[in-house]
Amino acid sequence: MPQTLTNRQLNRATLARQWMLARADMAIPDAIAFLLGLQAQTTNGPYQALWNRLDGFTHEALTALITDRTLLRATTLRTTLHLHTVDDMRGLRPLVQPVLDRTFSSVAKSRAIKADRLAVNEAGVKIIDEGPITAGELGKRLLALFPDGDPYVLAQVVQGAETLIQVPPSRIWGHGGAPLLARIERWIGQSLGEPWPLSDLVLRYLAAFGPASVMDMQAWCGLTRLAPAFAALRDQLVEFSGEDGRVLYDLPDAPRPDPDLPAPVRLLPEYDNIFLGFADRTRIQSAHAKARMSMVNGYVSTFTLDGFIAGNWAQTRKADVLTLALTPFRQLLPTERAEIEADAARVGAFLHDGGAVRLEWRPVKDA
User: What local confidence, expressed as pLDDT, does residue 148 receive?
Assistant: First the structure.
């Protein structure tokens, strides 16, 4: 019988691989490659995710890698924006392209677009290749060519078919506004490569997220019917059981540390790997926490205590002061409050670049 791993054991294994027990001394591109990318739906999310994980991380270091085209931000996993290395973008995007095709096709059908999608895409490519452009402007220009269309859907057709990179000066620290888009071929001078073998993706996923189930990986990447890929690798994997009996797979030599190893407080961005990487999130989110999480667009910023989600946090700026509002999910001990406040102060300094930071405790969140 496979060994049963408790949620606490899974928690510490995940935190160890995501460098959330101790920050790693690692180059940014190497870290992003190991993590198989970082969700980049918000401008600052990847910055904070890496600050939580890497020793000595700075805003400027990541911005430089985005600006010099070492790292690329485009739609990949789960049809959401991710930040990847060039090699990973070129191999992962074609692997998940069928998912994007289905998603954007359903969008077009729901808006009853009448124009031929191939013609729309060809026209969109010509427009984008004139120079970086926002999706809104792309939609307007396509509408002039396809007047019976919907500008949002017309732009979405191109975004689904082409690998559009969000390019600087948009989508870097300190810069807001609608992102500028350029085709990968124009931005880095290379087209997409061959899609990765599924076996490679499984092994890399387990290295960064294991132990995990087939359903966990499918929820993480958006692909389906991955059970045969796991089965083909059975001789290279070890099997465990979750507390609920689900089958979990892992690499034999991957870290699975002592479940009593201390875990520091971490303030997580809205979209973080340790939450998004699984279908079953009980390794990080208890039923108590799940019932109390105020979700916005599906996700929310959270903070952890002893490795598990223990509350929400939010930020607001007024004048030159950044306020971090902390909402716990239970009554906290004085020592716990002090630990959370210490990390919140560090996060505030990082977010506000050394400016004034105010911490505010909100009442305990009831279910």
Answer: 85
Secondary structure (DSSP) of 282-308: TTT--HHHHTT---BTTB--EEEETTE
At residue 108, the pLDDT reads 59
Q: Can you read off the two tokens belonging to residue 199?
A: 């076996």
pTM, full prediction: 0.94
In the predicted model, residues of the chain with pLDDT beneath 70 are: 106-115, 294-299, 367
Query: Is-contact 28 62, C-beta < 8 A?
Result: yes
- CA 30/CA 222 separation, integer angstroms: 23
Task: Burial-class residue 181 by CB neighbours within 10 Å (0-12, 13-18, 19+).
Answer: buried
Q: What is the DSSP letter of 212?
A: B
Q: Residue 293 has what pLDDT?
A: 84
- Cβ atoms of residues 329 and 340 within 8 Å: no
Alpha helices in the chain (DSSP H): 7-17, 28-34, 45-51, 59-67, 86-110, 117-128, 135-145, 151-161, 184-188, 198-209, 214-221, 227-232, 273-276, 287-290, 334-351
